[in-house]
Sequence to fold (141 residues):
Amino acid sequence: MACTASVRGVCGSWPKKAISFELSITIVCSQNTLVGFDTVTPFILQSLKQFPQLNRDRFTVRTDSDVAQLNLIRAGAGIGMCQVQLADFPVPLQRIMPEFFAFHLDTWLVMHEDLRHSQACKTVFDFLAEDLQGYINRVLR
Fold:
């Protein structure tokens, strides 16, 4: 199975204006509660190279749980980051600053080599691969 990508973007409500990322992040931080990470992980360190403005101190509400962050965003506690596909349901969130902010994440589906000859495992694997690719393609269109 080839590597595919899912997109992680910023979701919330935002006026549509043509402005720079620097100005956008300044406005977002000054006018909104930001929901984000608490602990700096290797992934976060790597992400901060691309987006140094999104450091820990910018977040008013912090948690290391992606599920908690998504629920806080859905509850209206603030603006935060989540996979674009997750933002689409059950009640869609509005994506903000898509032209400035998107992480493309590799997605891997793997199976232990001892299971590759099992027809039941192959059937489940093929089903998951097809549905996962459909899930990812929803945002890449």
